[in-house]
Amino acid sequence: MLTTELLHPARIACQQDSSSKKRSLESLGNLLASAVPDYTETEIFDSLVGRERLGSTGLGSGVALPHGRLRGLKQPIAALITLRQGIDFDAIDQQPVDLLYALLVPEESTEEHLQILARLAGLFSNADFCSKLRNCSDSDQCFQLISNQSSDQQLSA
Question: Which terminus of the chain faces fewer neighbouring Cβ atoms within 10 Å, N or C?
Fold first, then answer.
């Protein structure tokens, strides 16, 4: 599954203000809930928080990939938030996080889940890409950047 198949500009929020990890996860839950009407924002938030309790999804270099599983979800979906100011996310490098890409997957899709996370980790390990993403001012610009980077990544794979 391509990264752009998971995401839609309507689930991207750029240059947001957030005061905490919890508030950021709530914002991501709100964006994701718009795409999966069978689930409440609370169910989505609880899934993301439940995974965070197992260990932070902060990868380092200002990036976090919060993710969760939902019983009955038909296909993986994602949301992205870029923050004006980084927040404490208990990241592995103890640095503030300002790029949060959230992923929800069906409860039973273990292998696909791991493949998507690996692809995302590769995408967000590109410092130039992350820098450009931080400078995007709207969701369409973010989506286009991700689409272009994902295409480049597919071609080089």
Answer: C
- What residue numbers bound the domain in which 98 lies? 3-156
Q: Digits of tens for pLDDT over the chain (157 positions)?
A: 556 789 999 999 999 999 999 999 999 999 999 999 899 999 999 999 999 999 999 999 999 999 999 999 999 999 999 999 999 999 999 999 999 999 999 988 777 778 888 889 999 999 999 999 999 999 999 999 998 887 655 433 4
Q: What is the CATH number of the domain that holds 87?
A: 3.40.930.10
Q: Which one of the listed residues 67, 69, 113, 119 is annotated catalytic?
A: 67
Neighbours of 73 (CB within 10 A): 20
**Residue 65 DSSP one-character state:** -
CA 12, distance to chain mean position in Å, is 9
3-state secondary structure of 115: helix
Contact indicator for 16, 84 with CB cutoff of 8 Å: yes
Q: What is the pTM of this model?
A: 0.92
Active site annotation includes 67 = yes
- Domains in the chain, number: 1
- Single-letter residue type at 28: L
